[in-house]
Amino acid sequence: MKKILFFCLYTLSMPAQHLWIDVVPEFSEIGAESLQPPYTAGADYAEEISLNSKAWVQFSEIPPDSKWCLLARSTEATQGGAAIQLRPDYMSVSAVQWSANSPELIQLENRPNAVFSGIGAVGSLLIEFIVYGAELSKDWQPRDISIEWTVESGGCLL
Amino acid sequence: MRLIISLFTPVVLLAQPFSNSVHTTFQLRYQPIALISTSTPVLTAEVNIPNEAGQRIDSPSLRGDFTELFATISKHKNVDVVIRNPSSEIVGVRCTALIVNVPQGSYSAANTILTTTMNQVLINTNGICTGTQSGEGIPLVFEFLKYSDYSLLFAGKHSVNLLLQVL
After folding, report:
1. How many CB atoms lie within 10 A of CB B31?
2. Domain count, chain B
3. Strand partners, A22
4. Does residue A6 lie in a domain region?
5. B132 is in which domain, residue-wise?
């Protein structure tokens, strides 16, 4: 009984993986500065528009050599419009925590797509959001960009 | 032995597959945009001098009587592009927006418009993007009205200031 109690206490005190993701600011605006050329009559939006909103990822309470994979999936209710892409800033993490083959841009879709393959804890991984292929005559209504982020053990095949 | 198993069990659990999920949301907003410009800001007209005294000046001929309207107007609301001419202007000018295909969106144009009245609608659109290159804009044709009273014009240059506005 004593040993069972010891086991339970030890197991409960075990560190659990902790995933924390914050997107700031909560609003991103696209205006005439995003035209190509900017502020030019007759011009359409640039093919790629970098948003002010960025995701900050913290993943902790994990052994240093443990591999994991960060996936992102769009849960946006209204579909259509310009594509949203994710661009991990690999310089925001240690060089040993990512592969040189890691993709530069990842499309945000309804199915989970691998965004980042990590090893051990990550303090502040920065992920930028890109609006790709916006068109003035189609993209004008506000959109709530909802994302489900999942960290799985084992790393990604990036 | 049991103690050893108890001590090693957490290590085994740590190596177990894990999966954690969180949700985030942020809002993407497109600001209203209404930008217009013309390819040629200045048009020049020449007046043919009558052969004999007492004859009236007929319609002046415009040199470069054509300009293009470039527009980037978002779909946030229906917009009029209007043209204004000072009501005191003695030279009558007619401006017509031709209907052509533009890369994005569409527009309607009123028929020939006399610009001697304030705020005449030139085009109406609910979102348009014409392009920026020559040949992609909306052609605007300017004409001077025949039989206007040009006798009030003095020798030299006379400027007619037309103003295009998005309302």
Report:
1. 13
2. 1
3. A56
4. no
5. 32-166
With contact defined as beta carbons under 8 Å apart, do A82 and A135 qualify? yes
Count of the separate structural domains present in chain A: 1
Q: Which of A36, A32, A42 is nearest to B138 (CA)?
A: A42
Q: Contact A140/B104, CB-based, under 8 Å?
A: no
Q: Tell me the CATH number at A58.
A: 2.60.40
Using CB atoms, pick whichever of A42, A75, A144 lies closest to residue B71: A42
Put simply, whether the predicted model's pTM sits higher than 0.90 gets the answer: no
Least trusted range by pLDDT, from A84-88, B7-11, B128-132: B7-11
Residue B90 forms part of a structural domain? yes
* Cα distance between residue B122 and residue B167, in whole Å: 11
| pLDDT exceeds cutoff 60 at A7 | no
Quick one: which of A64, A61, A145, A57 has its CA closest to B22?
A57
Rounded CA separation A23/A38 (Å): 26
Report yes or no on A3 lying in a domain: no
Task: Show the tokens assigned to A115.
Answer: 């965004």
| CA gyration radius, chain A | 20
Element (H, E) at B46: strand B44-46
Q: Is residue A8 one of the residues assigned to a domain?
A: no
Q: Do A141 and B30 touch (CB under 8 A)?
A: yes
> Is residue B133 a part of any domain in this protein?
yes
Q: Would you call the peptide bond into A25 cis, given omega within 30 degrees of 0 as the criterion?
A: yes
Q: What is the DSSP letter of A96?
A: G
State the nearest Cα–Cα gap between B163 and chain A, in angstroms: 16
